[in-house]
Amino acid sequence: MNRQPANIVLIVVDQWRSDTLGCAGHPCVRTPHLDRLAADGVRFTNAYSATPTCVPARAALLTGLSQKRHGLVGYDENVQWNYKTTLAGTLASAGYHTQCVGKMHVKPYRNLMGFHNVVLHDGYLHTVQGRRDDYTLYDDYLPDLRRRLGRPEADYLDSGIGCNGYAVALWPYDESLHPTTWVTDQAVDFLHRRRDPSRPFFLKVSYHRPHPPLDPPRSCLSYYQQPGIDIPEPVIGDWASDFKLPQGASPESPVPQDPRQIKLARQAYFAQCTHIDTQINRLTHALIRDNAIRNTAFIFVSDHGEMLYDHNQVAKAAPFEASAGIPCIVCPPRSWQADELTGQTSDAVVELRDVLATCCDLAGIDPGNQPDHDGISMLDTARGRVKRDYLHGEHFRQELSNHWITDGKLKYIWWSQTGREYLFDTANDPKEMHNIAADRPGEVESLRSKLIDELADREEGFVEDGKLVPGRPQKAALSHAGTTLGR
Description:
The protein has helices at 32-40, 54-63, 67-70, 87-93, 126-131, 141-149, 179-194, 218-224, 259-289, 321-324, 354-363, 378-382, 441-455, and strands spanning 7-14, 42-48, 97-102, 117-120, 201-210, 248-250, 253-254, 296-302, 328-331, 344-351, 391-395, 402-406, 410-415, 421-425, 463-464, 467-468. By secondary structure, the protein is α/β, with parallel strands linked by helices.
C-alpha cells in the first residue's frame, strides 16, 4: 500500500523502566496518555537497550548500529562521534525537516548528528562542572531559566540534590520552569512556528527525566502520596545476596538506605514519569491544533531502565530486566487506522538500533536505499515478517562487567570478570526472582554457545579455544569507537 511519508515524533526518555506504564500493568503508575498511544499502536514487551547507560545506548539509537559496530560498550563521554550513518541524517536526505529538543549526550556536545537543528538540554554536565566551564555554552535551558527568573545565579542544581542519587527534593521553582516542561515548550514551538510545512518532519523530543535528580513538581509527587496509593516494595531475588546496595557514586548523590527514604525515592521516580506523560499530551494537542495529527507517527522509547532498589541495586548498566529492559511503543499515523498493528502487543525482541529502520519504514524509504545499519523495522517485526532470534547485550562495569543473551523467553548472563553464570526464565519469571542456571545446564550451554559466537572475534580476547575466558582486561570503548566497524 502506497502511503504518504509520515511525520515522526520520537520521544526518548532517560532511565525509564519497562514495567513503569499503566498499560504494562503497573499497580500504581499513572500514564494515561502513553496508555492511549499504546492502545492506538503496538507495545513491545521484550524491548531492550543492549548497552544500558546513556552514552552507548544513544549511539545505538542515533546510528542504528549494534555495540560491536559503533564501539561503545560502556559509559565513555570522551569519544568523538564521527559516524557516517545517522538517524536524523537519513531522514533529512529523504526530505524531512529534522529537529531535536532536549538530551543528545554526544561528543562534541553540539554535534548535530544529522539534525538540521538541536535545542539542547543534556541535564547535569559533570565534565563541564569539573572544568568549571560556562554551562550555557553547552545548554540552552539554563540561560532561559535565568532570564525567566531574573536571577543570573539560578541553576538546575538549585533543588540541592545530585543527578545520580536517590535523595528527593521537590522542584524549587514553578512547574512551568521544570526542565521537562521546558523541553516540551521548545518542541511545541517547533511544531507551531519553526517547522517547514511543505515537508514532513522528524522531531526528537528527549527528556532527561525520570533519571535523577528526583525533583518532581509538587502536583505530581502528591498523587503518589495520597492514601490508598500503594507503592510496591522493591523485589529481591533469591540470588540478590550477590549484591550490596551502594552508598552512592559520589558525595552529592547518596543512595539512602532507610525504608522510608526508599519509598520516597520510588514515589518521586513514578512522579517524574507521570509529569512526562502529561507533557506528551501537550505534544498531541499541538499536532491537533496544526491539523498534523492524522499523518504523525509516535515512537516512545527509553535509553535504558532503572533498578530502583530491586535486587539490592539502583541505576543502570546491569543485565537485569529493570535496567536493560525499556518501554517501547510504536504508534503509526491515524491515517493508517486500518493497519493490523492498532492496539497490539508484541513479544518479539527489539532493541534501540531498530528505531532507525522503523523510521525508514514510516518514511517510506525502500530497504534497498537505506544506509548501512543493523536494525530491523519494528513494524515488520510486529507484523511477523521478520524476527530477531536473540539479542546480545553487554556493559563494561569494572568487576561487574557483563554480557547477556536473551531470546525473549530465557536470559543467560555471563559476568566477564568472574565467570559467574545466571539463567532466568523471563517468560515465567519476569522479575528475575530465581537464578535457574544450576537446574537447566542444557539451556545454559545453548545460550553460552551463542555468546561465544558473538564474542569470538572481539579484541578483548573473551574467547579462547572455543570457550569463554573470564578476567580479560576491558574498557568502555573499543578501539574503533566513534566510527563504524565494517561487517
